[in-house]
From TrEMBL:
It comes from the Eukaryota. One of its GO terms (molecular function) is acid phosphatase activity. Pfam families: His_Phos_2. This is BZ3500_MvSof-1268-A1-R1_Chr8-1g09781 protein. PANTHER family: ACID PHOSPHATASE PHO11-RELATED (PTHR20963:SF18), MULTIPLE INOSITOL POLYPHOSPHATE PHOSPHATASE-RELATED (PTHR20963). CDD domains: HP_HAP_like (cd07061).
Length: 354
């Protein structure tokens, strides 16, 4: 690999780290410190993105970005509603902080749609992205305007791509580019979508072992002398409702009051276990789902389509990648939108966070 390609790869890796962390902040710093909502959080930025060394020139930026804050998808929504069916509409509750459940109605849907907060996150990210890279002596405004945007067909990711593009083009007088939308069905080759139903995982064991440690105290406190039939999954769902409902309403959800401040670190670790053992270093084969994206990344860095992407036998759509209108190699700025799960697979394959 040439020195230029190597510097591009380092730049790409740094962008992967930074873009995984950047998001708007809904709550105050003090509240965020005690309320870690795992993958449902509106996270603090990791920090100011450092400029490259003065001897280096950024001539290409390749970013991999997850969607903004979104509502629950079908699987999580079903689980949450099963939990609520056990506890909503009771005549009496063992604790005062549970009384709101007597006439509670679930309103978060099940589509996983991008929330208003998520739209704002991605617009702001697009604005910041342009300030960082465009017209600053690295990438020209003209080359930035010719940005390539792609997304999986998930509505939240498509909407995130559009919001980012709006922010990126803000104030330029140029219309936002339409993202290339890549289908993510079970039989579609898509490097931005995790699709390996037979992938082995130890996450149910790891997570349940941890839940057996910390949820009994919460169950005992909330149920008191009344057995609502709650289990450890229900407790975690209450925590998810705290995060999701707070993001939707921009006010602190009453579900947050069901937990002690000290218990939020347990919720955070529960989420860490889920991601680590399902999509990252705890699942040795999870990184295999990032091979296709890595080959496309190397193709963009080197320009060698036949050597990388066209040799891939995993998730690359070889026909589409051979078409310059669907996989161009002449751009200075590329951004692809994917899920947090697939982002983890790519990060793990690249050896980040070791």
């Amino acid at each position: 690999m040439t020195s230029t390609a190597s510097s591009r790869l380092v730049e790409t890796s740094l962008r992967l780290v930074t873009l995984a962390s950047i998001a708007g902040l809904l709550f105050s710093d003090a509240h965020a410190a005690t309320q870690p909502f795992t993958q449902n959080s509106a996270q603090l930025p990791e920090g100011e993105y450092p400029s490259p060394p003065s001897r280096c020139k950024v001539n290409q930026v390749i970013a991999l970005q997850r969607n903004g804050a979104s509502g629950p998808g079908a699987e999580l929504a079903t689980s949450i509603q099963d939990t609520l069916a056990k506890i909503v509409g009771k005549s009496e509750y063992s604790r005062s902080e549970m009384k709101f459940l007597s006439n509670y109605t679930y309103k978060l849907g099940a589509s996983g749609a991008l929330l208003a907060h998520g739209t704002t996150q991605l617009k702001d990210l697009g604005v910041q992205f342009r300030k960082t890279y465009c017209g600053t002596g690295s990438i020209s405004e003209k080359d930035c305007t010719n940005v390539w945007v792609a997304s999986t067909s998930s509505p939240s990711q498509v909407d995130s791509a559009k919001a980012w593009s709006t922010g990126f083009m803000q104030g330029t007088g140029t219309s936002s580019p339409s993202p290339r939308i890549i289908a993510e069905g079970a039989h579609d080759n898509n490097t931005l979508a995790a699709n390996c139903p037979n992938l082995a995982s130890s996450v149910p064991i790891a997570q349940q072992q941890w839940r057996d440690v910390w949820t009994p105290a919460v169950l005992q406190r909330l149920q008191g002398g009344t057995n609502y039939g709650l289990n450890s999954t229900d407790i975690v769902n209450f925590a998810y409702m705290c995060a999701l409902e707070s993001l939707v309403t921009t006010e602190l959800s009453p579900f947050c009051g069901l937990f002690l401040d000290t218990e939020w670190s347990y919720v955070e670790y529960d989420g860490d276990l889920g991601k680590y053992y399902n999509h990252a270093y705890g699942a040795p084969l999870a990184r295999s789902q990032g091979v296709g994206y890595a080959n496309e990344l190397l193709t963009r860095l080197s320009g060698l389509l036949a050597f990388y992407a066209q040799r891939d036998q995993t998730q690359v759509n070889n026909t589409a990648d051979a078409d310059p209108s669907k996989f161009p190699l002449d751009r200075s700025v590329y951004i692809d939108f994917t899920s947090d799960d697939q982002l983890l697979a790519v990060m793990t394959l690249l050896g980040l966070f070791l």
